[in-house]
Design a protein that fits this description.
The chain is built from 19 helices and 22 strands. It is an alpha/beta fold. The radius of gyration is 25 Å and the shape is globular.
């Protein structure tokens, strides 16, 4: 079998692959056009962050079985295109954890003491001690947004400097937070109480521009922002404005919306320090992930075990055909649950109807958990580790087996409770493969569970759907399907609209401003 590597990588990776009798071509810096020309003869592709694995490359890879990223995240890989072609996409979870945590600590200290600015001044022949007076981190409050592996390592280290740590994570349990000496708070509380804020979440629809003008307005005057996670989590325009206004005292950035940044005005500010995406750039981390991706590729191509996979095509490998569509349904219900959550998740009850579903109850429970956690965690979530994650996060999980026939012979229901509210959603398979949502709380409704979906509750009165349709048309958003449900005439109603493209934030504000429309949500499945 042949493996193509298109970014620089340590010799240890090449040696492991060669020792396992694979033919390896290492072509760092090769262009996308060249990759498309030759990729058809390769069984696996290994990249780092440099190569953008586009749908064109994936479609040209007629023999591709695996795409591996030597590093965390798969931002540079079109995972959806790979999944459609049945190609496994994997990364190396955990290999960069310590390095990224240590880099975050370095950025906090450098920002608090103006070390880069003072060094630059000294090199120019100046001696400006008063100008670069800093602040102590001792006794300050660090707010961590995201308490995955990296966030926890940061928390452990800053406590050694005498910092108080507060954190926000929608799924971490109270017992784990107590063990880590972290006070769990809401996002508004974190913004208002923190002296330093550091983000450690994946980049997705929920975290895009998470730190924006509204959240920065809630912060203490003089807050300091650190981002060593992903570009795009911090709204750079909002950050620029607040740095200039004095609301934000300083920012330390390792990642940017555009990399490398071109003419980014943030880099011209005296209260910003920056590094070129160095979070994982240590000898130890690079060696670790190079070895890890090589070993994962070997095991997968030899059909031993699939590790570090991030897409459903890989994670559902080996599931019996008779239950396959229902595990997909479970994953989609889990993903829907995650995007509808308001508050801190406390409890999940999964109810299964039908003898087939009872037979595979453990598998279906895990499928829901995988869908739930995949968007929340920076590391891959699969059918093996999903129950462990739930246990570690302190989420109470229970199961019910429904023996009543009802309207559907086979049904999966997810009843989830947070500290703010609780909801129940149900789905089934219609025909041979159509995955449908059939219940949302007291609304019985039938909607395809796929793509971009607009959810909103409204008062049941004429004109609302027409108004929403008009706004979508004005923004050139095509409607793929509409599902309607209501409790009674003139009472509360639920509308689900499937659309063919992304919905801009500005459009959502137009919807919520209309009298009678409530609780607008956008879901991506």
């Amino acid at each position: 079998m042949k493996i193509l590597i298109t970014d620089p990588i340590e010799q240890s990776c090449l040696d492991i692959l060669a020792n396992n009798k694979f033919i390896v071509d290492h072509k760092p810096g090769i262009s996308a056009v060249e990759i498309c020309t030759i990729i058809g003869s390769y069984d696996a592709l290994i990249v780092r962050s440099g190569t953008k694995v586009t749908s064109e490359i994936i479609n040209a890879g007629s023999s591709l079985k695996i795409i591996g990223r030597a590093g965390t995240g798969v931002d540079n890989i079109d995972v959806q295109s790979a999944t459609r072609k049945g190609i496994i996409v994997m990364n190396t979870p955990g290999g960069n954890t310590i390095s990224t945590a240590e880099h975050t600590i370095s950025m906090i200290l450098a920002l608090s003491r103006n070390i880069p600015q003072a060094y630059s001044s000294l090199l120019s022949g100046k001696w400006e001690r008063k100008k670069f007076q800093g602040v102590e981190v001792f006794g300050k409050t660090l707010g961590l947004i995201g308490l995955g592996k990296i966030g926890r390592e940061v928390a452990q280290r800053v406590q050694g400097f005498g910092m108080k740590v507060i954190g926000y994570d929608p799924i971490i349990g109270d017992s784990l937070a107590i063990e880590l000496n972290i006070e769990l708070v809401t996002l508004p509380q974190l913004y208002s109480r923190s002296d330093f804020i550091s983000v450690h979440t994946p980049l997705n629809n929920e975290t895009k521009n998470l730190i924006n003008s509204n959240s920065l307005a809630l912060c203490k005057k003089g807050v300091r922002i650190i981002n060593c996670a992903r570009g795009g989590i911090v709204d750079e325009k909002a950050l620029l404005f607040e740095l200039q206004s004095g609301q934000v005292a300083g920012a330390a950035l390792d990642v940017f919306e555009e990399e490398p940044p071109k003419n980014n005005p943030l880099l011209n500010l005296p209260n910003v320090i920056a590094t070129p995406h160095l979070g994982a750039a240590t000898e130890e981390a690079q060696e670790k992930v190079a070895v890890q991706i090589a070993e994962q590729i070997v095991k997968a191509l030899n059909e031993e075990i699939i590790l570090g996979a991030v897409n459903a095509a890989a994670l559902r490998f080996g599931i019996p055909e008779e239950i396959s569509n229902f595990t997909l349904l479970g994953e989609k219900l889990g993903a829907l649950t995650e995007q509808l959550l308001f508050g801190k998740l406390k409890e999940i009850t999964i109810e299964l109807r039908g003898t087939l579903l009872h037979k595979y109850s453990e598998l279906l429970k895990v499928s829901v958990l995988r869908g739930l956690f995949s968007r929340l965690m920076s590391e891959p979530v699969n059918y093996i580790n999903a129950p462990v994650i739930a246990e570690n996060m302190g989420i109470h999980l229970s199961e019910k087996k429904d023996t009543e026939s009802g309207n559907f012979a086979q049904l999966i229901s997810v009843h989830f409770k947070t500290d703010k509210e609780d909801h129940i959603i149900s789905g089934t398979i219609v025909g041979t493969s159509q995955i449908k949502l059939v219940r949302f709380d007291s609304f019985y409704i039938e909607s395809q569970l796929e793509g971009t979906m607009l959810f909103y509750k409204n008062i049941d009165k004429p004109g609302i759907l027409a108004h929403v349709s008009k706004i979508l048309a004005e923004n050139k958003i095509n409607i793929a399907g509409v599902a309607l449900g209501r409790t009674d005439i003139g009472k509360e109603a639920l509308t689900i609209i499937g659309v063919d493209s992304k919905l801009p934030t500005s459009l959502l504000s137009k919807l919520t401003d209309f009298d009678g429309i409530l609780n607008v949500k956008v879901v991506e499945l």
